[in-house]
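Batch job 17 of 40 flagged for manual review because the log was empty.
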Amino acid sequence: MPAKLVLVETPNRHANDVPVVREAVRAVVLDRDQRVLLFRAFPDNTRSRFFWITPGGGVAAGESASTALRRELTEECGLVAAEIGPLIWVRDHVFPIPHSGQLTRQRERFYLVRVDQHEVDVSGWDDFERIFMGEHRWWTVSEIQASADEFAPHRLGNLLADLVNGDIPSEPVETGI
């Protein structure tokens, strides 16, 4: 169940305090070695722990989830003509957009995408992606579970273990934050 968002009116409230709703899609890209593709968000080397995310992004007006995900996979990692698998996870969370500070309530849908292997190509990144994202890496479940870094969703290691073991949910699983 998505976390409830409660807003309290205050006299000194700024426009950035009211979350903007953003529909988003993400890909859990698994290769033949059961590794998942992740990108380091907020590439700031002063952080004690890094934060890793799956490829994906916002759904444009009039765009279907599968069209948006294909576009994002092409732009973010050069993965063209990927077969979009089932919707496996959902997540609803609030966070400030980097650099603008605008609070965003992002409703994410995660789809399973399997590839034999893939050489990541980031030449399609726009200015925001160049600022927001850093290196990419293929991770095993055990590497994620042993890492001190942060992942989105936070339970990624456990959720991935189920997928790798062949437990594909028939209904999307709420991942929590």
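Reviewer: the log was empty due to a logging misconfiguration, but the result itself is present. The chain has one domain: 15-174. Unflagging and moving on to job 18.
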